[in-house]
Amino acid sequence: MLNKIWIxxxxxxxxxxxxxGHAQDATNALINGAKxxxxxxxxxxxxxxxxxxxxxxxxxxxxxxxxxEKIMPLLKFLFPAVPKKSRAMKYIALxxxxxxxxxxxxxxxxxxxxxxxxxxxxxxxSYATNSICMFMVINMSSIQLISVNIISYRLxxxxxxxxxxxxxxxxxxxxxxxxxxxxCKIFERGKI
Amino acid sequence: MNVLxxxxxxxxxxxxxxxxxxxxxxxIDIFNVFTEGAKDGIETSxxxxxxxxxxxxxxxxxxxxxxxxxxxxLWKPFESITGFPSELIPLAFAxxxxxxxxxxxxxxxxxxxxxxxxxxxxxxxxxCCTETVFYxxxxxxxxxxxxxTRHILICTFIGIFxxxxxxxxxxxxxxx
Lengths: 192, 176
What we know:
The structure holds two protein chains of two kinds.
Chain A (H helix, E strand, L loop, with lengths): L1 H18 L3 H38 L2 H8 L1 H7 L8 H14 L6 H15 L8 H11 L7 H9 L9 H22 L5
Helix pairs in contact in A: 1-2, 3-5, 5-6, 6-7, 7-9
Chain B lengths: L1 H24 L4 H36 L1 H16 L6 H9 L1 H15 L4 H12 L3 H8 L11 H23 L2
Helix pairs in contact in B: 2-7, 3-4, 4-5, 5-6, 6-8
C-alpha cells in the first residue's frame, strides 16, 4: 500500500509538473526534499534522544509501570492478546500518554519500540497482527487532547477567540478515534 | 484561554521534574540512565532517516505539482450535494501526508477567509482530529518487515472520514 502511494505521489507529481511546464521546479523540489529530510532528521535526533533519555529514567524507576497500571482496563480492551506485564504493553501506554499530551517527538520513539516489541513477541509475522493494527489505527486517528499549534496560528491571523476550537477539537478527535477503533474491532474478526 | 496556555506550558516542565525526582528517590543512577536512553534514541533516529528521505522527497514533488489544488476543483460538483465546502478538500488530503504541507494550506485558508469564518473554524477542528498517516506508518514500520498491512489504512480512513464530517457539523455549531 505504501509502495502504491509513494509511486503515485512521485509519478503524478512529475507528470503534472511536466504538463504544466514546470518540470524544473519538480526536480528542484525532489532534491530539496532530500535536504529538508536531513534538516528534519537533525532536529528530530536531538529531540528523540532527549525524550528517550527521560523515558528510560521513568521506565527504570517504575513510573511507566504504575501509569500503565492506571489505564490497564482500556489497554486490555484494545489489546486483548498482549500480556499485561509485557514490555510491549509498557511502550503502548507510554506512546498513548505522549500522544494524548501532544508531546510530538516523544511519541515517535515509544511508538517505534511498541510496534517492534509486538512484532517480535507475536512471532515476526509477515502480516500486521490484530494488536499491531489496533496500535497503528489509534496512532493515526489522532488522540491528542489540545492542538496548541492551531491555537497559535489562529492567534496570528487575528482570531477573536483562538481557543474556541478546543472543545469541538476534542469532540471531533473522539469521533475519529472511536469510529476508527470500532472499525478495527470489526475488521479484526476477518480472515488474514 | 490564558489558563489553557498556562496549563499547556507547564506540562513538559512538570513531567520532567516528576520523572527526575521519582527516579532520584528510587536511587537510580539518573544521568547514566538518561545517556543510555539517549543513545537508543539516536539509533532510532538513524533507523528512520531512510524512510524520512524517501517520504519527504515524494511529498515535495507532489506539493510543487499543484495537484493538491486540483482536488478542490474536482470536489466542486459534490459541494452542494454533501454540503462540505470544496475549499477544505486540499487540507483534508494535505494533512494525511505532511504536517508542513497542511500548515501551509491552513495559513492560506486563514488568510483568505479569516480564522473565525465557517471555513476557518472547520479547518481548525479538522487539523485537531487528523494525523499524518503516511509519515506515521512509514516511520513506525521502519524497524520491522510487514508486507500485509491488513485493515490498518481502511480503518484509519474511516476514522478520518467521520472526524472530518464531525468537524463540518461542529464548525456550524461553534462558529463565532
